[in-house]
Amino acid sequence: MTLLARRRAHGAGMAAAGAARRRALVAGAAAAALAVVVAAGTIAFALLEGTTSPPPPPPPAPATPTGTAYVDGISDQNVAYWNGDVWSGGPPASPFARFIAGALVSGTPAPLRYARYVVAYDVMCDTAGPAYATFESWLADVEQIGLRPDVAFWYGDFDGNRCASLPLIPTSAAEYNGTAGGGAVAAFLARFPQVTTIEPWNEPNDGRGPDVPAPRAAAFWLAVARDDCATRSCDAVIAGDFSDATRNLVHYERRYVAALDGAQALDWGIHPYAAVNHERERTLLEFEAGLPNPAADRVWYTEVGAFYCTPKQNRQRGYTDAQLQALQERRAHYLVTTLMQYPFAPVHVFYYEFMYKNDLPGPCATDDSALYAPAGRGAPLQYQSRAAVQDILPFASPPVALPAPAPGASIFYARVDWRAWRDGWRATRLRGPG
């Protein structure tokens, strides 16, 4: 069955089940702007525009929920660098990766299913460079763990990629896609047929750069969904992939949807960092109310994390580890118990990130949302969970030290050293890869 046929069949089946939920979302967004105030027997109407008051409680949940019941994916660039190793398939050299495979992918009632990675759209132009080598290692790693790869494309020069023949941001869909033998997206998808879940552009509305105009970002989605997936297997081509932490979300989404010109985009991505870390539903309500077919569209939280520390909340500013863990756990709890419950029903949720790289704690300068932290540099068999694990991964067993892998199990790339999403485009603080 083609992607278009699956999209149509799914839309028909989802319409009835999703209509009540979406009506509640739209009603909730409207209620956030207009409320009825009853006082002393007098009915007055007050406009609540611009306030932080939450919408009224939604109607009772339907008997059959349509979303995932738990976090089912990893959004993590560091898989190949967990515990300091770079490994590529085979017996996992990383003890943390073996813990993930043994405790969170198999032998659990809530197994992880997906792993997400962000790669330069023109990475095929520089196959001798570090970005391509790291992606190949990541892909082998997550397949060995037992996860399905989900790949999001981003700007050129990302992650050490270099391509003199293509611009940092493609100026057209033709330049973005290229040909199967070229250096852009079509060549990537031809080279890696096992990648069947695709995000044509990561956070095009970022607000701090590099941004992509909404009509052009929509054209990227059309290039993959209509052109590339006409000749290859595609399980999902995720539209949008927006950040909710920017002021342009509503306006950008409206222009993006209009540029699709009626094309049926079943799957939509959102990165609800603001909703989670400010513990407010508003951005998600606005996003879902703006979807082109609210009764049938499926929402993916393709990247989301609860912050352990930020540039303003960290140990250098007087917070203790216990306080930071408590803050992260509260935010993680809000994600699971509010933003993954009715009237929200994300079909998949990918958490960023599981653990930072090279036996180092995540940098607070870029907002650390890791669930696990190394116990200490130079102790690769030791890692510890943070309190938020109980919410995000409730079935996770306590991490245990595993025996060292057999000699030769690791494959090292001496020059490959992914750095924390910081480059000429990214001079301000970041949330993560999105």
Describe the structure.
- This protein is an alpha/beta fold.
- It has one domain (66-392): Alpha-Beta Barrel (TIM Barrel).
- Helices cover 30% and strands 14% of the residues.
- The chain has helices at 3-33, 95-105, 130-145, 173-177, 185-191, 214-227, 249-259, 273-277, 282-289, 321-339, 389-392; strands spanning 34-39, 42-47, 73-75, 114-120, 148-154, 197-199, 236-237, 239-243, 267-271, 298-304, 348-351, 372-374, 383-385.
- The strands form three sheets. A nine-stranded parallel beta sheet has the order 7-6-5-4-3-11-10-9-8. A two-stranded antiparallel ribbon has the order 1-2. A two-stranded antiparallel ribbon has the order 12-13.
- α2 (95-105) links the parallel β3 (73-75) and β4 (114-120).
- α1 (3-33) crosses α9.
- The relative contact order is 0.15.
Distance between the termini: 32 Å
Q: Assign the CATH architecture.
A: Alpha-Beta Barrel
- Say what the CATH topology is: TIM Barrel
Number of domains: 1
Task: Name the beta content range.
Answer: 5-15%
The secondary-structure element order is HEEEHEHEHHEHEEHEHHEHEEEH
Going across the biggest sheet, name each strand in turn: 7-6-5-4-3-11-10-9-8
Q: Report the uncertain regions.
A: 10-23, 25-52, 87-92, 400-434
Radius of gyration: 22 Å
Pick out its properties.
nine-stranded parallel β-sheet; 13 strands; alpha/beta; single chain; two-stranded antiparallel sheet; 434 residues; TIM Barrel
Layout of strands and helices, then pairs:
Elements lengths: L2 H31 E6 L2 E6 L25 E3 L19 H11 L8 E7 L9 H16 L2 E7 L18 H5 L7 H7 L5 E3 L14 H14 L8 E2 L1 E5 L5 H11 L7 E5 L1 H5 L4 H8 L8 E7 L16 H19 L8 E4 L20 E3 L8 E3 L3 H4 L42
Parallel strand pairs: 3-4, 3-11, 4-5, 5-6, 6-7, 8-9, 9-10, 10-11
Antiparallel strand pairs: 1-2, 12-13
Helix pairs in contact: 1-9, 6-7
